Each structure stands twice: as C-alpha cells, then as structure tokens.
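Bumping with the actual sequence this time:
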Amino acid sequence: MSDAPTNEQDPGEQDPGTLLSQFAQEALGAALSPRLDGNDPLTLSFDVKDAHLAGGALDAGYAMGFAALALRLLAASTADVEAVSPLSINSDFTGTAKAGERVTACAQITRRTRSVIFADVSLSANGRNLLTATAVYKITPAE
C-alpha cells in the first residue's frame, strides 16, 4: 500500500490548497495548523512514523515534500489572492530523523517583488538541522 496521496478526481480540478492539505494528512499524517502572524515565520511540525522511513531514517522525499509544503503555504499566504507557482526550489540535507521524532519546518520570506517571492525553510528535529532549502515563486495576478 502506498503512502502517496490518492484522489478520485483529476488533480487538475482541485485547488492547490486542498492538494497540499491532502498530502499533509495522507502522506505525512500531520495535523497541520500553520502559524502566520504578520511577518513572522511559518512553522509546521509532524511526527515521523515508520512509514516515513527509508533505511531507518526519514526518507529524503518526505523531507523535501514537507519543506516544499511549508514554502508553498507561506508563499500562497503572502501573495494573498494572487496565484503562486514555483520557479526554483533547492535543498541541502544536513541531518536525518528517526521514527518518533518531531520534525519542525520554519519558513520565512526573504524578499518579495511585484512578480516574485523569495523564501527559505529549515527542517529540524530535537535541535538538529535536517534540511535547508531556498525557493523562488512566481506571482501571477488574479484574473
């Protein structure tokens, strides 16, 4: 049985927020309650389960997916009613987590122009840095 999100509708028919939430709930098993307050960083957490492991450590795909989720939620909340789409996401792995550990993402906007959002995120567990990533999102004005 796969941990990948499943959906009976065509994925193109759903809004991105629904797909992100579905990914978080099904793939990560995370009960997400993003915290955003003005210019404060966005923080999200999830508990690593056996299904998230590869070779006894948090699978890189889950780590990158969680980082991308945090970046996407932050960019979308910053752009308000405008749409955002990723132009670039680069990540570096610096550590790993094991089952039972809580992984926390802390994402922040580093710069915003009229058409682009720059952001970064770090994942950590028990004070250890696991991953850092930077992203650039294109802002598309609402029609």
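The tokens above came from a reply further down the thread. Helices lie at 16-28, 60-78.
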